[in-house]
Amino acid sequence: MRPTVRTALALGLLAAAGGVAAAADIERALPFVSDDYGKALAEARAQKLPLFIEAWAPW
Amino acid sequence: MRAFVFTDSALTSRAGQFVWLELNVDDERNAAHRERLSLEALPTFYVVNPADESVVMRRVDGMTVAEMGSFLDEARTAATGTTPSSPVEAALARADRLNGEGKKADAAAAYREALERAPGGWPPYGRAVGALLFLQQSLGENRACLALAREALPRVLGSPTSVMVARTGLDCAVELKKDEAGRAAAIQEMEAATRKTLAPPGVGAAADDVSSSYLSLIDARKDAGDSAGATKDAEAWAAFLEAQAGAARTPEQRAVFDSHRLSAYLELKQPERAIPMLQESEKDLPDDYNPPARLAVAYLEMKKADEALAASNRALPKVAGPRRVRVLQTRSDIFAAKGDSAASREALEQALACAESLPPGQRSEGQIKALRKKLEGPPAEPKG
User: Fold this and answer.
1) CA-wise closest residue to B169 among B216, B201, B203
2) Residue of A nearest to B274 (CA)
3) pLDDT in the model for residue B3
4) Cross-sheet strand order for the sheet of B44-49
5) pLDDT tens digits, residue range B254-302?
6) Please, which residues 180-219 of chain B have a Cβ atom closer than 8 Å to chain A?
7) Is A18 a member of any domain?
8) Which of A18, A20, A51 sits opposite B18 (nearest CB)?
9) Is B208 close to A30, i.e. CB distance below 8 A?
10) Rounded to an integer, what distance in angstroms lies between the CA atom of residue B384 and that of residue B336?
11) For residue B45, what is the nearest residue in chain A, using CA coordinates?
12) A40, B123, B183, B347: which has the fewest C-beta neighbours closer than 10 Å?
């Protein structure tokens, strides 16, 4: 779930509910590296591939 | 996105096209990256050139699987640094680069140039419009945002993009100054457009996109002083979310709708409707702080302070970072509702200490200021 752009500008000030949800620990179709920018960057450089980043939060 | 798009097997073939990184921006380890990436909203997706770590493309907001596929195709091309084949592609590439560098005004001008050069049926049109609308909102350019929505709507009619364009146009119309000429007519026009995008059979937009539109409609009704209309839209919002949650295939997918559902129920002043779903989510996702944190909010609204405190007690050990501040703020309100002003103040002091301890990138000066102001004021009174 995501906020409207307007509410997103405040990074999740969605009423008292605490913003939009993003479920953790889900089965992913892609081999994501979790929370290790250095490792992912090194892999991207080694493989000469662009680095895709999903910025999210568990709320 | 996380529970729906990135779990879709249609993306599996993309695995070798990028190195994939998920960054929990609430994690202290990622605070510096959050700051460097100029994060303003969630979710945001970036494609980075690993050679110099420049952001070659950025997209704010969720996408359907098909939209994600298009974004990835464009990103691969952009990442190769290939010379753009036309002036419109050059303008878009420049806009994406400036947007990646956080140069909002320059990026907005470049997107504007790209859109002015865009031929009919130009594939990146919807993405470029979305990027420019976001920048305009971020820059407070509500009239330009409204004009762009009006301009773009006929071109994106019937597509998933139309949901975002109409809603953003509505948001920008509502944000115009109250005495600005044409404001009421603009709201009426954009509200009608937004309702049209939600009408059956729908346009295939992501559920969260549709959900956000209901929120905008409710805001518009409230702005018009039409509380009955706002309630009617909130009912429709809740029904939509309940149907989506009912169709979820996993607890994670179902729980994705919890936050908006709680907001809809709070809007309807029916917080009790949230209790069963949140109890189910707490049972299914025992490590997640969200269900008990939301239960605390719902019980507090129901004036069941003891149940709210018990839920807060369960949430607190599981939450860190910026979200812990909010959980502590709710906790302060719970103690106030119980008439325990000393414990209420203590929780607020803990919230302030937590907020002040956050690293740059996660730290919010506005939040710290608000907490200090609240602490300087009189003790909170029990609600109701």
Assistant:
1) B216
2) A17
3) 65
4) A32-34, B19-24, A51-56, B44-49, B54-60
5) 998 999 999 999 999 999 999 999 999 999 999 999 999 999 999 999 9
6) 207-209, 211-213, 215-216
7) no
8) A51
9) no
10) 11
11) A54
12) B123
- For residues B191 and A24, the answer to whether their CB atoms sit within 8 Å is no
Largest CA distance in chain B: 68
The string of pLDDT tens digits covering residues B189-216 is: 999 999 999 998 888 888 888 999 999 9
Q: What is the pTM of this model?
A: 0.85
Question: CA of A21, closest CA in chain B: separation in Å?
Answer: 5
Contact (CB, 8 A) for B323 and B362: no
Residues 84-123 of B with CB under 8 A from A: none
Domain count, chain A: 1
Contacts of residue B39, defined as CB under 8 A and 6 or more positions apart, other chains included, come to A11, A55, B25, B361
From chain A, the residues in CB contact with B60 under 8 A are 5, 8
* CB pairs < 8 Å spanning A and B: 265
Give the integer Cα–Cα distance in Å for B265 and B285: 21
Question: What is the value of ipTM here, to two decimals?
Answer: 0.78
Q: Single out the residue of B77, B99, B73 nearest to residue B86, CA to CA.
A: B77
The SS3 assignment for B8 reads: coil
In a domain? residue A48: yes
Residue A3 in domain: no
- Write out chain A residues lying below 8 Å of B280, CB-based: none
Contact state of A1 with B256 under an 8 Å Cβ cutoff = yes
Q: Which helix (H) or strand (E) holds B54?
A: strand B54-60
Produce one character per residue of B258-275: b if its CB has 16 or more CB atoms within 10 Å, e if not: bbbbbbbbbbeebbebbb
Q: Which residue range is the domain that position A30 belongs to?
A: 25-59
Flag whether residue B53 sits within 8 Å of chain A, measured between CB atoms: yes
